[in-house]
Design goal:
Layout lengths: L14 E5 L4 E8 L1 H4 L7 E8 L4 H15 L9 E5 L5 H18 L3 E4 L1 H12 L9 E7 L4 E9 L4 E11 L2 H6 L6 E4 L2 H4 L12 E5 L6 H13 L22 H8 L1
Parallel strand pairs: 1-4, 4-5, 6-9, 9-10
Antiparallel strand pairs: 1-2, 2-3, 6-7, 7-8
Helix pairs in contact: 2-3, 4-7
C-alpha cells in the first residue's frame, strides 16, 4: 500500500490500534509516558481483549473510548489509528477497516494498515519462554474455516519483522506435506494449532516447534507494530486503507457444508 504524503511524523505519537480479524476483538493505546503517566520512563501501552465475531462492531467504539478515557486523553489527542488489515474473517476485516476509516476521516488523522499474521508472530515472540534469535523465521497459521488455513512467514532481525513468505491459503494437509521429516524443524504459531488439529497429523515436535500455543493479534503486538510503522512513515490516507483478502470465496454452499460434515 502506498504511503500517504503527510507531514513528518511526530516522534512521540498517541496511537490507537485494533484488530477484529479473529474470534476475539483486540484494541490497544500506545502513548508517550508524559501523556498518561508522568512518572513513567517510557511509552505506555494499554490493551484490552473482548469477544469478537458478531459482537465486534458493537464493542469496538466503546472499547476505544474506554482506553482513551482511562488514560485521560481525548479523541483529538490521537495521532493515527492502526488496524489489522488481515488476512482473517471477511466480516471482521470489513468492520476494522470501516471503523478505522470513519474515525480517521472525522479526526483528520492518517491510518496504519497492519498485517494481522505479523501481529500474531509478534505476540508469539512477546509471549515465548525464550528470546527469539535474530535471523529466525516464524510461520503463522490461522484458521481460515472451510478446511483451509491462512499462512504466512516472517523473519526476525532482532528488532523488527520482515515478510519471508507472503500470506496464502493452504489446505489442512499442506503443513504435513511441506514439513514432515525436515532436517530442521520450523517455528510455528497461530490459532490453527488448536482450531485445526488435523493440520498437525503426521508432524512431530521436531518437525514443527510451537513458539507460543495461544498467540493472537493481541493489543501489545498491534501497538508495537503500529509504533514501528509510524516511525518508518507508513501512514496512509484513510481513503487508501483496504482490507487484505487472501480468498475470494467467503462461505460454503449448503451442499459443500454437508459434504464436509460427512
Amino acid at each position: 500500500m502506498p504511503a500517504s504524503p503527510m507531514s513528518q511524523p511526530d516522534p512521540a505519537p498517541i496511537l490507537l490500534a485494533l484488530d477484529t480479524a479473529t474470534e476475539r476483538l483486540h484494541v490497544a493505546l500506545s502513548a508517550p509516558a508524559a501523556a498518561t503517566a508522568p512518572a513513567a520512563s517510557q511509552a505506555v501501552v494499554v490493551a484490552q481483549e473482548l469477544p469478537g465475531g458478531a459482537q465486534a462492531s458493537a464493542g469496538l467504539l466503546p472499547a476505544l473510548q474506554a482506553l482513551l478515557s482511562d488514560a485521560r486523553l481525548a479523541w483529538s489527542d490521537v495521532s493515527a489509528i492502526a488496524f489489522g488489515a488481515g488476512p482473517g474473517a471477511f466480516t471482521g476485516l470489513r468492520t476494522a477497516c470501516s471503523v478505522t476509516q470513519g474515525l480517521a476521516l472525522g479526526l483528520g488523522v492518517p491510518v496504519i494498515a497492519l498485517d494481522t499474521l505479523m501481529a500474531v508472530a509478534e505476540d508469539a515472540r512477546q509471549r515465548a519462554c525464550e528470546p527469539l534469535p535474530a535471523g529466525k523465521v516464524v510461520w503463522v497459521l490461522q484458521d481460515a474455516r472451510m478446511g483451509e488455513l491462512y499462512v504466512g512467514a516472517f523473519s526476525w532481525d532482532g528488532l523488527r519483522w520482515a515478510v519471508h513468505t507472503q500470506a496464502a491459503l493452504w489446505s489442512l494437509g499442506e503443513p504435513r506435506a511441506r514439513w514432515a521429516g525436515r532436517a530442521e524443524g520450523v517455528r510455528v504459531c497461530g490459532n490453527a494449532l488448536s482450531a485445526c488439529p488435523s493440520a498437525w497429523e503426521g508432524l512431530s515436535p521436531d518437525d514443527a516447534r510451537v513458539l507460543a500455543p495461544d498467540a493472537m493479534p493481541r493489543g501489545g503486538a498491534l501497538a508495537e507494530l503500529a509504533r514501528q510503522a509510524w516511525a518508518s512513515g507508513q501512514q496512509l490516507d484513510p481513503a487508501l486503507a483496504l482490507p487484505r483478502y487472501v480468498r475470494d470465496k467467503v462461505a460454503q454452499t449448503t451442499a459443500e457444508r454437508a459434504a464436509a460434515q460427512a
